[in-house]
Amino acid sequence: MGLSYTTLSTPSASSGWSVASRAQASNLVGVPSAFLASPDFNDRPIRLSIHGVREMNPGLFRKLGGARDAGEAARIFEEYMEVLFGLDEEQRMRPGPDGRRRYRSSYRRLLEGWAFDSNGPEGAVLKGWVESRFGLFPTYHKRPIERFSSTAWVTYVEEKIASRFHNNAIQMQLDLLYEFAQWALDRASGRAERHRTLYRGVEGFEENQILERRGKRSALVLLNNLVSFTTERGVAEQFGSWILTARIPLGKILFFRELLPHHVLQSEAEHLVIGGAFEVEISRP
Predict the structure, then answer these.
(1) 210, 8 in Cβ contact below 8 A?
(2) Do the strands 140-141 and 143-144 form a parallel or antiparallel pair, or are they unpaired?
(3) Which of 52, 96, 136, 268 is most buried (most C-beta within 10 Å)?
(4) How far apart are the first and last CA of the chain?
(5) What's the rounded Cα separation, in Å, for the pair 163 and 154?
(6) pTM for this prediction
(7) Of 8-22, 38-52, 78-92, which gets the smallest average pLDDT?
(8) Which residues contact 170 (CB under 8 A, 6 or more apart)?
């Protein structure tokens, strides 16, 4: 007997939020945002790159090209980030001219905050980065974002621009993290692999909206502009009563477990995935 999910809600058309309306007119990757948000991109993905990032950091990618393995590449990346953004312990603890220590934002702090609560301030900054670089608006932050005038939208905007996380070129740090992830994926497969099959556990569909039901076990789902997936179905089963299985284009992966040797997302084989409308299989654990 087929799995039934007739109790799950489909978003009301009265909200006026189509897939295309979740996208800006412009972005920094040179592909129409509405196309990035559509399932067509996921079916026929192309390589993505944030304008100017590799060109402005040629030394990093030249060194990466000479790395013998993934471990050495990760060390090169982390050392480059530490020097460029002052992320090593000595620089972070060094007081400023007035004798006071300054909080320095870092991509690692954002990953730690995301792991603790994807709807916290760090999550808002990460979603804001996706919005500015890929042109995809978030659909959820603490609660569904149904219109720009809503309380949910205002809360998201206030948290994404909080000065605490914008004092150390944090957007550039995330640009480099994304480009490094894409470089590593290229290096690992030569892009012979175009997708990864990943899993996401959910309790309901308030954050992951069902746009269209395709069959007893499949649907077109609008994912938030940044979401967590895992490579391990058993891990996904710990996070919800429903399991979403999706083929994720490599170009929509911001971070994955093997990218760096030590991070808070490692134990759950977590991937940070740029969202949009995805064809997914829906099943029970």
Answers:
(1) yes
(2) antiparallel
(3) 136
(4) 16
(5) 16
(6) 0.89
(7) 8-22
(8) 105, 106, 107, 110, 125, 129
Per-residue model confidence (pLDDT) at position 26: 87
Q: Please give the structure tokens belonging to residue 132.
A: 């500015």
Between 264 and 147, residue with greater pLDDT: 147
156, 165, 149, 173: which is closest to 119 by C-alpha?
Answer: 156
For tokens 């007081």, name the residue. 95
Percent of the chain clearing pLDDT 90 (strictly above): 69
**Lowest-confidence region among 52-66, 93-107, 133-147:** 93-107
Please, which residues have CB within 8 angstroms of residue 252's CB and are 6 or more apart in sequence?
A: 42, 45, 48, 273, 274, 275, 276
Of residues 278, 205, 213, 204, the one with CA closest to residue 22: 278
- Specify whether the CB–CB gap between 251 and 202 falls below 8 A: no
Q: What angle do CA 50, 72, 232 make, to 5 degrees?
A: 70
CA distance 63 to 76: 7
Element (H, E) at 211: strand 209-213
- Identity of the amino acid at 284: R
* d(C-alpha 275, C-alpha 32), whole Å: 14
Query: With DSSP H G I counted as helix, E B as strand and the rest as coil, what are the percentages for the chain, rounded to 5?
Result: 40, 20, 40
- Name the β-bridge partners of 271: 229
Q: How far apart (Å, rounded) are the C-alpha atoms in residues 217 and 13?
A: 23
Q: Residue 240 class from Cβ within 10 Å (0-12 exposed, 13-18 middle, 19+ buried)?
A: middle
Question: pLDDT tens-digit profile of 201-220?
Answer: 999 888 888 999 988 899 99
Q: Is the pLDDT of residue 200 over 60?
A: yes
Report the C-alpha dihedral over residues 113, 19, 219, 149, rounded to 10 degrees: 60
Fill in the amino acid letter for 275.
G
> Under a CB-based contact definition with an 8 Å cutoff, are residues 93 and 101 in contact?
yes
**What span, in angstroms and rounded, lies between the C-alpha atoms of 236 and 234?**
5
